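Figure S7 source data.
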Amino acid sequence: MKNTAIARLLLKTKGFDISKYDRAFLKKSIQRRMTVMHCASEELYCTLMEQNEEESIAFLDSLLIGYSEFFRNSLSFAVLEKIIFTSILVKKTNSVRKEIRIWSAACSSGQETYSLAMLLKEFKKGEGEEINFRIFATDCSEVMVNDARKGEYTIDNLSNLSLKQINNWFRKQDDVYTVKPELKENIDFSVFDLLSDEFSSPPSSIFGNFDLVVCANLLFYYKPDSQKKIIGKVTQCLTKGGFLMTGETERSILMQHQLMEVYPQSAIFKIAQ
Ligand SMILES: C[S@@+](CC[C@H](N)C(=O)[O-])C[C@H]1O[C@@H](n2cnc3c(N)ncnc32)[C@H](O)[C@@H]1O
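Tokens for the predicted S-adenosylmethionine complex:
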């Protein structure tokens, strides 16, 4: 993108800091909006943004890509189920605080959070004993948080789930599958911006101290400075020996920050000793 075009865009969006986003990601987002708005050049698109408030909003919304899936990275979730949860539970047996605390830090429309809750509820059933856990699910977009809280999905959204999971955890009405209250009971949803300077962890969690933070599929939208800030924030509120799970394509970013992958390709990390 030409420097003049990006300068005009920065000017237009001065109430919202787009300079934190990765340049290639910004360019792709602009090109997507140009196609939608039938704009032949970046210059024309910037002029359109200057004249049209609705398009400014549509562009800023397009930066918060909310795509998600249940059990999005199957290997990470398998490692969570088979290794990580057991390790956290062993730690808990010797701890005063028995509750497992998890932060789903960019929860989008809830698929990641409900996948974690399903694993923990099903784990409990296998062991014949309840697992005491709480998941704090946050996103910077209020729209996403409201969608996540509602927990309404189409059958296409559920394609990674078994029939047993669909029957156990969803209620079907017409073509809408809604998450049952028993899967929501251990989850707190709230709005939280990972780049905010105000709070180090979601206020709803009171003191942070998470055994696991899932911060997946958002780092690659940001420039290295912002990535560093987010990684600093999520690692600082882990308990000693806590785990950080990220997206498959973000593993290399984490490896540059003194984090050690617990199992090859798992995208689950521990602070290196
Ligand atoms: C592609 S979705 C990923 C959802 C889910 N974590 C997953 O892996 O499927 C990215 C989410 O990150 C959220 N997000 C982007 N920047 C954020 C920030 N600074 N703080 C909190 N959430 C953010 C977006 O609103 C969006 O819902």
